Amino acid sequence: METVVSLSNVTKKINNKTIIDSISFDVYAGEIFGFLGPNGAGKTTTIRMLVGLMKITSGDIHIGGHSVKTNFEDAVKHIGAIVENPEMYKFMSGYDNLKHYARMTGGVSSERIAEIVELVGLTQRIKEKVKTYSLGMRQRLGLAQALLHRPKVLILDEPTNGLDPAGIREIRDYLKKLAREENMAVIVSSHLLSEMEMMCDRIGIIQNGKMIDVQNVREIMQEDKQSYVINAKPLQKAYEVLKKSFSEEDVIVSQQSIHIKGSKAEIPNVINKLVENEIEIYQVSPISKSLEDKFLEITGDKGGVA
Amino acid sequence: MGLIVNEWVKIFKRKTTYIMIGILALLILASSIVIVTTDNEQSPDNNWKTELQMQNREMEKSIESMPGEQNKELIRKDIAENEYRIEHNISPAEDYSAWSFIEDMMQLIDIVALLTIIVAAGMVASEFSWGTIKLLLIRPISRVKILLSKYVVVLLFSLAMLLLLFIISFVCGAIFFGLDNPSPYLAYADGKIVEQNFVIHLVTNYLLSSIGLLMFTTMAFMISAAFRSSSLAIGISIFLLLAGGTITTLLAAKFEWAKYLLFANVNLTQYFESVPMVEGMTLTFSVIMLFIYFIIFHVISFWVFVKRDVAA
């Protein structure tokens, strides 16, 4: 896989306070990389260093092989980005805004502008002033602006902020398409965990300026042991039975149900035992652990979540 | 270059720009109407020579009692001019023509300065307050080039405004006062009166008066780039533009260093038409001082703008 973005020991200090502490990771072409962390963890600061809005105190960032520090113009040429909200010149039309950015990159024809406008579905309104646009339309215009010059890397800071569920879904599908079909590397930051889970291939979790974990989303979700909820009557008797075949901490009884931890293979056996003991079973089902639990678990171990 | 086109488009896509141009045009139009309706038709006075002689005698008497070398010099200039008129038979009661009107409208350069200061002050600061600075600086263009393009557009804008002032004044003047051939301008230098072509006199005076505009606009631009606040830039620049002269005159009475202040040097016409604000100042001195200030303003704005972390 081609490495498009590479951060090595990137550190940011402001007034001697370390905001970002030696972060390193790579992003490959064709993948969606999620940048996850609680508010104030340093997501936005890292993204600002990536696009050259903030200076890097030490370490370096390479984009398409060019250093952001020493060769800014060549490095940033490969980037399309929205940093926080997609703020545009409100007194100009959407089309004039795109032309403005096209003049700054070069090699963007008016056919390309029309093509990208069509792509984000703004053809009807593109000649109207941006101040008449809804937030969702501004997001689309922001996306158009970022994609205009066919970048290798698309960086979106909180792209689903303020969008309705349909809009979120649309953006998600669109980003997946860009990564698969155009082989673009997409970096997305968010604190919306469920969102990241559905969108990203890999997720880097950042906290207090440190990268604590980079994981493949599929791997995070696949574990040998899973939790199951069992609804049965009489509950106390079922608990006694289950205690015999599971260790103490893997069986928890609550008022209406029992939670057990175990592998999938054990489940038929458990059901058999309960039936043998004449216990009435109403429900046995797996609890799919969301990324959110996982996230809190990871960050919780290493200092409180902000 | 695309960047310059961009900045120009951003100025002229805003309504405020047209309002400012409208105000300028209205002011010129209003002045011409005021002048044309006030009856200043001077009946051809055949006794103007004796009148000027009487004036001169009065002024010669008062010159001794006048305090300050500056004021004395001003009176000497008036006397010399009157004498020259008597000698060469040039009546002071000239017909008021378009050219005289353009000369009167030179006062509006301060208004032009006001307008360009407002534009210069918004140039960088607005990008920050709109939030568009983020999308502007992530293009493959160095920050130096971006700031330079903005400054160039500020200069182009002020030039366009000056040209507009000149042209509107000319048109209004031609309509209301007619296009007579201007009589020569009487310039005063080293105690002598020299005749000058009036149009050349106008153009040089416009340019000389615009140096103040250039300096204060550059200052507003610097404050805008360094402090990201357009209201601060407008406030400080306009205050100094209007009050700078007075402050310098006050300080100059007490302190020698007043001549190093920006305001003591911006008005270069003082070397051609009257006497310097602070004694001992020369044209070369002022030009060097202005140049130093100009460089300082730019070093500050570029240095801060390039170094800055954009967190807005």
Automatic annotation (TrEMBL), chain A:
InterPro entries registered for this protein in UniProt: AAA+_ATPase, ABC_transporter-like_ATP-bd, ABC_transporter-like_CS, P-loop_NTPase
Residue ranges occupied by any ABC transporter domain in the UniProt entry: 5-233
SMART domains associated with the record: AAA
Keyword ATP-binding belongs to the record: yes
Keyword annotations: ATP-binding, Nucleotide-binding, Transport
Signal peptide: none
GO MF term set: ATP binding; ATP hydrolysis activity
Cited SUPFAM superfamilies: P-loop containing nucleoside triphosphate hydrolases (SSF52540)
Superkingdom of origin organism: Bacteria
Family note: Belongs to the ABC transporter superfamily.
Designated name of the protein: ABC transporter ATP-binding protein
Source species: Peribacillus cavernae
Lineage: Bacteria, Bacillati, Bacillota, Bacilli, Bacillales
